[in-house]
Amino acid sequence: MSGDAASWVLHVDLDQFIAAVEVLRRPELAGKPVIVGGRGDPAERAVVSTASYEARAFGVGSGMPLRIAARKAPDAVLLPVDAPAYTAASERVMATLRAQPDATVQVLGWDEAFVGIETADPEAYARAIQAAVLERTLLHCSVGIGDTLVRAKIATGFGKPRGVFRLTAENWSSVMGDLPTKELWGVGSKVSRRLAAHGIVTVSQLADVDTDVLTAEFGPKMGLWYRQLGRGDGATTVDDTPWVARGHSRETTFQVDLVDRADIENAVRAMLDQVLDDVVAEQRPVVGLGLKVRYAPFVTKTFTRRVAATNDRESVVAEAMALVTKIDPDRAVRLLGVRAEMAMPDDAREGHTPTRGGW
DNA sequence: TCTGGGGTCCTAGGACCC
DNA sequence: TCTGGGGTCCTAGGACCC
User: Which of A22, A54, A112, A341 is catalytic?
Assistant: First the structure.
């Protein structure tokens, strides 16, 4: 090995994670189109969580209604979501990452994490990670190498599947410059459209635009944030301090819309009980409540209220019922969401850079 | 075709206080 | 009598991510 050791950010992303976990315990599914979502019933209101590469060839992708997915890939195997199985597999993967020499690991979700390292040969380190994960979990992953978190995260996409790709300040513009802004992590369809209205279509155009244009359109923070994204700049340090949740929530889409007030109240109570169990498990008080109501596709309302810090179920239920009265009694309810916000423990957020998307 | 469920963060506007 | 500006809190809504 030659050259001096330097700091690198690696982004590890499991390939078709959920589908891969399912295939592991059902080897006969290997090579077949597999779709995981909801309760695995295409007649229900549910969406695709993950599709295997074979299913993606039929045009099936995450977020697609299960019903549509089943029509596009009629021979696909449909499976229900089994969260505990994925959590268990994820924990084995993350433990493997933490066991790598001098690795700082920041978990982003079930199937991805940043790994901070110092090495003279990040590609070799990335290959070692892939080998270790495969050996211990039988799962394949792709690894992005970057000099910032954003670049490492985006790099992974170019390595998929089972590959390694390096994206740094050096090759950022040649790799990303001509791509549409939507390819950036944190720029979705809405923002890319608003950018396009200002003539900003590509990543390089975003990188070079006058900041005044962006702050006028998106506000002081987001404006600067988007330009930084266009340059691939940002945090360079992987932060492994344990995550502190801001709140917990439960959401349910009813298979048949609710019209009866008593049904709605009962549903809220049931969800609230589960949410409060989560909160109590953390031994932190509730400081806010929220209710999300979907009356029809695309018609969503939210109601929120601050509450005096409490863990008393009865008073929280009373506050929640006050929000329930805001639900339009003349409209059927398709989805209900209940959220409880929790007080932040003192010093939990000190020194943590506020960013979007959880990094 | 008519869209899950779990999160995070930002912005706008009104109320209220000094 | 009329009008200011700054700050904070609250609610609602929007956008994005996995």
Answer: A112
Say yes or no: A29 and A121 in one domain: yes
Question: In Å, how far are A7, A13, A115, A145, A211 from A126, measured between CA atoms?
Answer: 14, 11, 10, 8, 36
- A37 assigned to some structural domain: yes
Check whether residue A12 and residue A124 sit in a common domain: yes
Domain co-membership, A267 together with A339:
yes
Q: What is the pLDDT of residues A276-300, one digit of tens each?
A: 999 999 999 999 999 999 998 878 9
In angstroms, the CA A158 to CA A153 distance is: 10
- Distance CA(A359)–CA(A345), nearest Å, equals 19
- The whole-model pTM stands at 0.91
A119 is a domain residue = yes
Catalytic, A251? Answer no
Whether A357 is covered by a domain: the verdict is no
Give yes or no: residues A139 and A86 share one domain: yes
Which pair of structure tokens corresponds to residue A344? Answer: 């932040």
Lookup result for tokens 């600067």: A224
CA atoms within 13 A on the CB side of A254: 21
> Nearest nt to A184, CA vs C1'?
C16
Protein-strand B interface by C-beta, 7 A: A 38, 45-47, 49, 62-63, 65, 67-68, 218-223, 245-253, 278, 297-298, 334-335, 337, 339, 354-358
Choose one of A189, A209, A231: the last residue of a domain: A231
